[in-house]
Amino acid sequence: MPPKPDVTTEAPGAATPFISVKNLRTYFEIRGSVVDRLMGRDAGTVKAVDDVSFDLAKGEVLGLVGESGSGKSTLGRSLLGLVRATGGSATFEGQEIVGLDEPALRRLRARMQMVFQDPHAALNPAMTIEQSVGHPLKIHKRVKGPNDLRRQVVAALERVGLSPAETYLDKYPGDLSGGQKQRAVIARAIVLDPVLLVADEPVSMLDMSVRSKILKLMIDLKDSLGLTYLYITHDLATAKFFCDRIAILYLGRIVEIGEARALYADPRHPYTQALLEAIPDPDPNHTLPRNLPRGEIPDAAKPPHGCAFHPRCPRAFAPCGWEIRDLMGLLEARWAGMAEADHRAERALIGTPKIPDGPEPTSRLPAASGDGAALLALLEGIRAENPDEPFWTGVKALRAGAGQVEIDWHAPVTPRLRHDGKTAAACHLLDPELWPQAAGALSEADPSATAPA
Ligand SMILES: Nc1ncnc2c1ncn2[C@@H]1O[C@H](COP(=O)(O)OP(=O)(O)OP(=O)(O)O)[C@@H](O)[C@H]1O
């Protein structure tokens, strides 16, 4: 049975939400190496968007925020049908997008446009600004002749502040600055009168000095043209300035979503907290506590079990999905801080464990020397050195076996979004059944709870 939709974010009062995404999935099959294919081996699947649900109200700006690889672009592209979603549903003004054929998608795309990150790559260097901005009008057969094309292009250029527009028509992208190019890209995006813009990192490639001007332009356009935005960024600082609501993505899933003000004032998910703490503080006298996530975002083809953030989470505990890969990560981090000789000696005691495809109640760590008791003593020693390391909360039991150590794990639980009326977050620390200190904090999502004001 498909999981219950995370309905915490339905637009208020609207019988047909402007955009409604329910349990959307976009998975990519990895082709693997030639050898993999010859051997018929499955190289795996990247769950770029995994069971994502949200609503977007008309006129709203929803930010999609997360590190590189969290699935922001794939989610945006899936909504426009530029990438085919593999499951779930996404409706635009009531019309289902998932599974729509290409001609119908093309018609819809006149109303839903994308602004890409790199204005230098988005404009064809061999086309004049008039040709580039007018191109969608021709494709969608919205021109009655050259004069009409020019009139519409001029109007779009004026709207984005490229004025007087006539002076830009015959220029090539190479004649424009970065900010002017991005204005031309935005002109091309609005020339068909769309109602939704998916803006994918629209200012990240621009000089600091022009970023705020382009964002200000986008806000002005939103108000004057009645646009709705999906704003994709890795930058929580600009998202705060720009968005009504924000969804934080991690490895293809929304881990927190809610009103921007509430999310900044009281972030509930440890990942959101860490991202916010990583925003550089403009005041040099004000030192922020640093609690950054450890390590890199994991391989999306082999995501961690339970809560995908648990290996980097400073507050992870027993049900978060601990597994043998976490033990190997812990050992690698330990060895990186040791003298070479000590590291080698310890490394020599530990064999290579089998990494299972899914959760397993018990894992086996081979003892390279064949002496399971010695390996157990080593692991117990490591635990005693740092008993507060979150990893150990996931270990139910450690035993010496024949030539190995057996590790029993607490069963992983995948967190679901829970809300407090303004934000919803998917973290076991908010679940009173798993974390009694959370009692009364948040409850499971319900349809009327965290709708945007
Ligand atoms: N066409 C594709 N085929 C296979 N994997 C893909 C494809 N497109 C994206 N991915 C993978 O899907 C995951 C999400 O990628 P996506 O580009 O959506 O993330 P992102 O958050 O937008 O990252 P960035 O900020 O770097 O653009 C990544 O692991 C990426 O490698």
UniProtKB/TrEMBL annotation:
Entry keywords, A to Z: ATP-binding, Nucleotide-binding, Transport
PROSITE patterns, per database record: ABC_TRANSPORTER_1, ABC_TRANSPORTER_2
InterPro entries, A to Z: AAA+_ATPase, ABC_transp_ATP-bind, ABC_transporter-like_ATP-bd, ABC_transporter-like_CS, Oligopep_ABC_C, P-loop_NTPase
One cellular-component annotation, GO: plasma membrane
Spans through the membrane: none
Domain ABC transporter per the UniProt entry, residue ranges: 30-276
Subcellular location: Cell inner membrane
Membrane topology, as annotated: Peripheral membrane protein
GO process terms (BP): peptide transport; transmembrane transport
UniProt-listed NCBIfam families: oligo_HPY
Family: Belongs to the ABC transporter superfamily.
Name the record gives this protein: Peptide/nickel transport system ATP-binding protein
Native source organism of the sequence: Allgaiera indica
The organism's taxonomic lineage, starting at the top: Bacteria, Pseudomonadati, Pseudomonadota, Alphaproteobacteria, Rhodobacterales
